[in-house]
Amino acid sequence: MKTLSELLIKHSMIECFICLQEVPGDLLPMLRQMFDSHVGSTLATKPLMHIQTYSRKPYIKGRHRDSLYTDANESLVTIHYDPHIFTNNKAHGLKDAGKCLLSDDRVLWTPCPSDNGKGALTVTTTSGLCIVNVHMPYDNQAATLLLNKISWPEKKSAFVFVGDMNRNSKAFMTMIDETTVGKPSSGLLFPVATDKPTRVGFWQDGTLHKSWPDHYLVSTSIKHLAMSPAVVYDEVGDISDHYPILLPFKCI
């Protein structure tokens, strides 16, 4: 929560998205409370939180006792914050309400056909920006099934694809090329890797294992705005088995 709060405060003057995977149900009310505590002081308006709960229960590796969670559900969560966009309730009664854009995100859930614990949560804003928050299966066949169900960008679309890909950027880009060949989106996606490993663990023999399973794809229409490589927050402590990653874009 501390890391998410700091990210929102740091970027409180611009539109931003926070994409979370494998979110336990207990964290959802904590996120809402955090937003409420910042609105009016640091944040101009309350962030939108798009949630997709799916058929998988969170657990702690190596623990076989009862769940530690009160709400033993798991979700993909996309947080959308824009200081210039207000909800209907927020805009009502404001002096300049007519100049405020009203939030009207369109949200689509694409489940993986062969893995109920994986899928893609797509948020499309009123400006046409498309953000895909994804948790890809380990299995290549299952991953291909999911990729074939996702709506990829048209030539001029602003499109960002991010999440736990469960494979490095080069391997994932090969899958994307194979999935989109012969389709209108072929050649329209550009990989943005990270500057450091995004996950650090241990092999069974106890040796350190670093990997790059988290990264971005952006549409070629906005790749010149992406400030690559994506930044890895690897000094945040033991908050997850993955490090948070950040990709800023230049203002236009």
Give a structural overview:
The structure is a single chain. It contains five helices and 15 strands. 27% of the residues are buried. It starts with a helix and ends in a 6-residue tail after the last strand. With 252 residues, the chain is an alpha+beta fold. The chain has helices at residues 2-10, 27-38, 88-91, 140-149, 169-180, and strands spanning 16-24, 48-54, 74-81, 85-86, 101-102, 106-112, 115-124, 130-135, 159-164, 189-192, 199-202, 208-211, 214-219, 231-232, 245-246. The protein has a six-stranded mixed sheet, with helices on one face. Helices cover 19% and strands 31% of the residues.
**Class based on secondary structure composition and strand pairing:** alpha+beta
Measured distance between first and last alpha carbons: 31 Å
User: Number of DSSP strands?
Assistant: 15
Secondary structure tally, helices: 5
| Strand adjacency order, main sheet | 6-7-8-9-13-10
Taking the sheet with the most strands, its summary is: 6 strands, mixed
* Helical content (DSSP H or I, runs of 4+): 10-25%
Tell me the overall shape: globular
Q: Helices and strands in order, then pairings?
A:
Layout: H1 2-10, E1 16-24, H2 27-38, E2 48-54, E3 74-81, E4 85-86, H3 88-91, E5 101-102, E6 106-112, E7 115-124, E8 130-135, H4 140-149, E9 159-164, H5 169-180, E10 189-192, E11 199-202, E12 208-211, E13 214-219, E14 231-232, E15 245-246
Parallel strand pairs: 4-5, 8-9
Antiparallel strand pairs: 1-3, 2-3, 6-7, 7-8, 9-13, 10-13, 11-12, 14-15
